[in-house]
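User: Can you predict the 3D structure for this chain?
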Amino acid sequence: MNLWMRMLWALVAVVAAGSSAPANAQTVLRDDRGTIHRFDAPPQRIVSLLPSLTETICALGACSRLVGTDRFSNSPESVRGLPKLGGLEDAQVERIVALRPDVVLAAKSARVIDRLESLGLHVVVVESQTHADVKRTASLLAQLIGAPPEADRLWDAIERDMRRAAARVPVYLRGQRVYFEVSSAPYAAGASSFIGETLARLGMGNVVPPEMGPFPKLNPEYVVRAQPDIVMAPRRDVEAMAKRPGWQTLRALRGRSCGFDTERYELLIRPGPRMGEAALAMADCLASMKEMR
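Assistant: Here is the predicted structure, written as structure tokens:
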């Protein structure tokens, strides 16, 4: 065999070895606690205890691997028939174990993490409060299911929708300050939250500065003093705001509010694959506001 042929066969051997390696490679992940997880094969039975994680698994093409979710996971439609296993405070340990999951996906605040791990289950913990967190979570879960390229595809789709949404916002509204209420306590979405970052992508301001944290609890008087230009909240809460002490003075409640129905509002407050769709929903409401003279 001449030198050229020996080099050719050596190249073929290297390529063949490289193409077969991933099938036997162990997947090693570090979750948001810093815990290292090792999987000999991509998990085929997944329990998700957070709606945004459920949606992300489905958006990455692995919806069929879900065997159970938290009670609030309702999108896409196919997950509604799965066993519902409680929430952050009351996840049903026995039922989760009975499903024999290869992995359980949970938020840091889930109370059952230690218990599930003591029973020998893999619990991958993720926390998403910013756009960067959502992108990182998508990459981690795509690696977990053995489909890393899907994360880039998903993020590209979110980015496309973000750009489309920004283009819909009227120029005369750019820079106006939004009060986005996440709970009538009231808790708000600050500028450093994923919701605040979406508003910024739309060219909007925020009455809650970054230094107050992603989702601070506010004194109701803070909102009155801040006099937001625009209010966003569930429709029922927007309709009730004028009855709160002092809130009848909010000018935003007179033609500058976005009251969302329950399904649409859930879309807005989930840091996951539908963030681009959420941006479009915000933009549509803003685009409906007439210019004030």
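The domain at 169-287 is CATH 3.40.50.1980 (Rossmann fold). The longest helix spans residues 3-24.
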